[in-house]
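USER:
Make up one protein:

ASSISTANT:
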Amino acid sequence: MASGLLFTHLLRFFILKYDLRPPLHKQKWAKLAVLILLICVIYNFTNSEFVEWFKLYDPTKRVSVLKRFLGSVIFDSPLIFIWSCIYFIWHYVELGRKTEVQKVKLESLVKELELKTIKSHINPHFIFNALNSIRALVDENPDRARTAITELSNILRSSMQTEKMELAPLEKELNIVKDYLALEHIRFEDRLKIEYDIDEDTMDQPVPPMMLQTLVENAIKHGISKQKEGGIVRVISDFTNEHHELIVQNTGRLNVAVEDVIDGFGIKSTRNRLKILFGTKASFEIRDMKDKEMVEAIVKLPLKEVY
């Protein structure tokens, strides 16, 4: 037992020294096999000599050192192999555990980078559209242009505060939407009608920052701006079937260019963010409303208590 402990520790020393821990390549497996075989030979030879030196045998059954060595190789070597197997199994299990932890950390990092990439597109995308709206007002009505600049500064201030947040209260996001629609109302005037149907109990529910504003912007771009007479943008927030449901409705129909709408940045960013943040717990759908000249975008989010 003493020599077994000694030589297995010696074996471990050389495994660490020559970096023979898992995972191993073909050449290292060969080195490991030679190392284990060498340790087994030394281990059994030492045991045989130890028995001979201290006369630890039955004098009536005395055998030569060579025979004793061969017997030791047959009966004692498996102990070294069993120890080696246990040692490597433990290392492979530990390697698998570390790999799984690294995988989870990597997935978390990828999600964080994806969210930052999406956010970095959302703000410039919105700013360019807003500036175009203001530019259209500068010569036509300078007073309203100044008002529009004030509205835009309010929106930018709010969006900068939520830049580092994965989720924000609906109340804050609704304030951004109201500022945005006030800005767009200056451009569309009577062509744009705005309605809100908000359950007050949903105001503290977390939502992805700028997502609601992106959907409203999408409704203006693909809906109201295409209608000669303009139309309605309606924002709805309510609880439905254990979900927080956000709906943005606008006058219009999904036409032959529906692929352009679905593949557009607003829709893609919404789907990607929901998938990253909530997985299968959230859903998004855009569709025509039955018996109405209206399109609605529906976002279903898990309730605050769920996560």
Summary: Strands lie at 168-169, 192-198, 206-207, 231-240, 243-251, 283-288, 294-302. Residues 256-260 have pLDDT under 50 and may be disordered. DSSP finds eight helices and seven strands in the chain. The longest helix spans residues 65-138.
